[in-house]
């Protein structure tokens, strides 16, 4: 009776670029989940910082795994790091990618400028080439890694090098902003629960019941 209709592939793709309810509502949901995580504020904030940093890396499709591993190594909250990868989304990836690749070329001493369309095309082509070369192991096709080598030199390595500085800056900023907010929220929540508990105890005494003697 209440069976939900499965989403079409077109709708899934559309919601990836623009979530149901909009990006503001999605950001509110992520923020709400982060504040309510059962861990000290500094560990949650550390996880957030790691997740933000992971979003700057060129490991597309592996940002969750990257964030989880780094968070575990740095003793951050793993779930917080996964939620914080929300920073990397279709609205921010174009800026992150072009900034990181070109900054990486500059850091490597290369006078090269690579624009977003080439970056996107390079990742798509490299993914296809890797898949084709892996399939060639089980077929008569000949593996060709020459295009992968060019992708590595022109896009991937500069991206990996260039993402470090903006990624760390964004991660540190996320920690500095998140830690006091989460700490204040947790303290307010504890005080609210304590006040509610004391109120119930006071009501019980006022009714002459006293503390529960069956405990």
TrEMBL record:
The chain crosses the membrane at residues 48-74, 156-178. Keywords: Membrane, Transmembrane, Transmembrane helix. Residues 25-189 form the DUF2062 domain. InterPro entries: DUF2062 (IPR018639). Signal peptide: none annotated. It comes from the Bacteria. Pfam families: DUF2062. This is DUF2062 domain-containing protein. It comes from Aliiroseovarius pelagivivens.
